[in-house]
Design brief:
The chain is α+β, with helices and mostly antiparallel strands. Helix content is 44%, strand content 22%. The protein has 23 helices and 26 strands. Strands 8, 9, 10, 11, 12, 13 and 14 form a seven-stranded antiparallel sheet that branches. β15 (434-441) and β16 (444-452) form a beta hairpin. The protein is elongated, with a radius of gyration of 55 Å. The N and C termini lie far apart (150 Å).
């Protein structure tokens, strides 16, 4: 008998006979041993361990169970415990083994496969679910009633199917504890059959896996949140690539995404001023009101602890912001009025410096910020920095493009009223929604340009100009900028600000109708004098200090254009006055000179009587000097006509050979007076070109006159011919020469490079100037090659237009 009992025990230890394993398995919380060293609750045949079918104990004692509900321990033997069963029988368990089962940290149970009613459950069940185990055994539907409603049908069906199929189970489900908690259990069930193969009982263990399930759920939640965060960041990055210039829209999208993903009440973006003495809200989204806000400012002097923490450039996670020493300074003024309990601030770093913070505000019970929250907040701050950098790059590119266009427009015309109108149009819509230009003219402020992107706003601007012209004493930004010479920046135009600057109700009405949000009025200043103001107005974006450099550069260029135009107008007026004076004086001088030459010719013809040789020589001298004066007057007249823009070209067929010989006849006596050899090289046959006869003659005479004047000894030569389609004339001399650095200056008006020689040799200094300008007027050029002390060669190249001559 004892051998049979030992064999049964060995079979039970191996798992033979199907006893439920309550200890020693990994699933039950013990040490898995591959099926060895396990402790069965019952042996085969449903007899409590420690008894045999005859009721004899292994130690020779008697274990015959007493009446149900009694405690009849024999002398010297430990008492036994009776557990009620579904059949109303009493199953006895050795108290030592009952203590072993009760000491396990898993629920061990035994039940009826037909009714699913518990026959036995260890005391750990009370600790897990809170129900006394008497209820487990006494209530027929205890297990069913306390299953989670969402798991009830599925689990009962699984148990029924497993019982019918005779298979073991490993299932997970939820039960409702006595205190209302939801407890996750993993249940391992084995079906025990009798000798006939009929289901006899169910044995199993329940393992509390609530913490594991919570950890799994937290991991799934964390992964889902991480996926959502990554998707949000990806969309934000794509948007910045698509629209880098629209910073306000990017910041609005970022704050809305932060609120949605982290479930906070508000998300705000704050930026420092240049000295980090203040921090300003540039964008905030409020979840409750679905609204955006900006403009609030805090000073370092009022919140030193908070600013000191920001200076450390690390994330600030305040679970209880009203108590946290870094943020409690805000309690009365900001946290309590807004219901804020927790704050999470992430630094915004851009360009190697701290630019501001992203502030996430939680309303409700204090919130513990997780590492994932802090990481996402940091990513949001990085996204803000990228948006700022992208906007700045785009703004810089737009500014360069705008300045290039403005430069081209301003250089295209000296009519500053027209060019300023073009500048105003170029500023829209990239930099402003409306641009106005006011200029000081004759002591009054006059609007010379006004452009708006919206036609309706254009009508309002025009009406405002007609009904309320800008006055010197006005408090409107443009007038203030003109008076002070300093820019006027209005970051946010409020009704109070408008009423403080404008007195006339009708003017207030028109300005309100314009719907301007932000304004920059930049003075136009040149050479220290206020010339006017250019005003940029925005209905959408808010201007800030970063926008002033572009406005200043546009104003500088516009002011320069105005100044240049006015200088040019003054120069034209002076030039006209000079030309008029020269024309009058030349006419007044030329009339008596003509008379002098005429009377000298009469005397030389001896119409008044015979002359001596000495008298003829003196008359000849008078005539030559009078003709010199005539040539000077002609130079002055030609120069004044070109300066006034009245010079014209009259093309006609000209015999170059004949013209060169005629010029030589005039120049030869001049060279003879200075005892210079004079040479001429010209075409032997008639050579017809199409040019302006008078201007070509003037060019050659001026070049020859200049050569004779600056040659003391040696010779002067004139060579002229046609080369391909060009008239090429060389005037060579052996005179004093010209230094390389002076070879361009000699073509400037009234310039002679040697002051002493200017007085000795005379002349106006206009000969070469007139010659070159006439050559360019004809489509040619005059160049010079010279070496000091060795003479000079002037070359004139003019279009011959021989084809035009043939056609004529």
């Amino acid at each position: 008998m004892r051998a049979a009992r030992r064999a049964a025990a060995r079979r039970s230890a191996r798992g033979d006979g199907g006893a439920i394993l309550a200890h020693g398995s990994a699933d039950a919380g013990g040490h898995g041993d591959g099926g060895q060293g396990r402790y069965p609750l019952y042996e085969e045949g449903e007899h409590p361990r420690g008894t045999d079918p005859d009721g004899a104990r292994e130690d020779g004692g008697s274990d015959t169970p007493p009446d149900a509900g009694a405690s009849d321990a024999r002398a010297g033997e430990p008492p036994t415990a009776r557990l009620p069963t579904a059949r109303g029988e009493a199953a006895e368990l050795d108290p030592r083994r009952l203590g072993l089962v009760d000491g396990l940290n898993v629920i061990v149970w035994d039940g009826d496969p037909e009714t699913l009613r518990f026959r036995f459950v260890n005391r750990y069940a009370e600790e897990v679910l809170g129900y006394r185990r008497e209820r487990w055994l006494a209530e027929p539907d205890f297990w069913f009633e306390h299953l989670h409603p969402q798991d009830r049908d599925r689990i009962v069906a699984d148990f029924r199917a497993a019982t019918e199929q005779g298979r073991d189970q490993d299932v997970e489900y939820r039960m409702v504890a006595a205190d209302g908690r939801i407890v996750w259990l993993r249940t391992l069930v084995r079906l025990i059959r009798d000798e006939a193969g009929r289901p006899q009982r169910l044995c199993g263990v329940m393992v509390d896996i609530t913490e594991q399930k919570h950890a799994q759920e937290a991991l799934r939640t964390s992964r889902r949140r991480l996926w959502e965060q990554n998707q949000v960041l990806l969309r934000l990055a794509e948007r910045q690539i698509r629209e880098p210039a629209d910073l306000p829209a990017a910041l609005r999208e970022i704050t809305e995404a932060a609120v949605r993903v982290l479930g906070v009440e508000r998300a705000g973006i704050w930026t420092f001023d240049d000295g980090r003495s203040r921090i300003r809200l540039i964008e905030q989204f409020d979840r409750s009101t679905e609204s955006h806000a900006e403009g609030l400012e805090f000073a370092r002097a009022d919140f030193p602890a908070y600013f000191a923490e920001l200076d450390r450039e690390r994330t600030l996670a305040a679970q209880d912001a009203r108590v946290d020493p870094r943020t409690r300074e805000f309690t009365e003024i900001y946290l309590v009025p807004r219901g804020i309990t927790s704050m999470l601030d992430a630094p915004i770093r851009s360009g190697g410096e701290l630019r501001g913070v992203v502030c996430l505000e939680h309303v409700g019970p204090p919130r513990t910020w997780t590492p994932e929250d802090e990481s996402f907040a940091g990513s949001i701050a990085d996204m803000v920095a990228l948006a700022m950098e992208a906007a700045e790059r785009s703004r810089a590119e737009q500014s360069l493009h705008l300045l290039a266009e403005v430069g081209a427009v301003l250089a295209a015309s000296l009519d500053y009223r027209t060019t300023l109108g073009n500048v105003a149009r170029l500023a829209i819509p990239g930099f402003a929604d409306a641009c106005l230009v006011d200029v000081v003219e004759e002591g009054q402020i006059r609007r010379v340009a006004a452009t708006a992107a919206d036609p309706a706003k254009q009508a309002l601007i025009d009406e405002l100009r007609r009904r309320h012209p800008l006055r010197w004493d006005s408090r409107r930004p443009a007038a203030v900028a003109i008076r002070t010479g300093k820019p006027e920046l209005i970051t946010e135009s409020t009704d109070a600000m408008l009423l403080a600057r404008v007195d006339d109700p009708d003017e207030v009405r028109l300005l309100r109708a314009l719907g301007v949000r932000s304004v920059i009025a930049q003075p136009l200043v040149a050479r220290g004098e206020p010339l006017g103001a250019i005003t940029f107005a925005s209905a959408g974006r808010g201007y800030g200090p970063d926008d002033l450099p572009l406005a200043e550069e546009l104003a500088r260029r516009a002011a320069l254009a105005i100044d240049n135009a006015r200088v040019h107008e003054a120069a034209l007026a002076a030039s006209k006055a000079k030309s008029d004076f020269l024309a009058v004086m030349s006419h007044e001088l030329r009339t008596p000179l003509t008379a002098i030459i005429g009377y000298a010719d009469l005397l030389a013809a001896e119409t008044a009587g015979p002359l001596t040789a000495r008298q003829k020589e003196q008359l000849s001298y008078i005539t030559r000097r009078a003709r010199d004066l005539i040539r000077i007057i002609e130079q002055i007249l030609a120069y004044s006509r070109m300066e006034a823009g009245r010079a014209t070209v009259h093309l006609e067929p000209v015999d170059l050979a004949e013209l060169v010989r005629a010029v030589a006849e005039i120049a030869a006596p001049l060279a003879g007076e200075r005892h210079l050899a004079f040479h001429i090289v010209a075409p032997e046959e008639p050579t017809i070109v199409v040019t302006d006869r008078g201007k070509l003659r003037r060019i050659l005479l001026d070049l020859l006159s200049n050569a004779v004047k600056f040659t003391d000894r040696g010779s002067v030569a004139l060579e002229a011919d046609v080369e391909d389609a060009w008239i090429v004339a060389h005037v060579r001399d052996t005179g004093i020469g010209i230094r390389p650095e002076d070879q361009e200056r000699i073509f400037e008006p009234f310039v002679q490079v040697e002051a002493a020689l200017t007085r000795e040799r005379g002349g106006t200094g206009l000969g070469l100037t007139v010659a070159r300008r006439l050559a360019r007027l004809l489509g040619g050029e005059i160049t010079v090659q010279s070496e000091p002390g060795k003479g000079s060669t002037f070359t004139a190249r003019l279009p011959a237009r021989r084809g035009e001559a043939a056609e004529g």
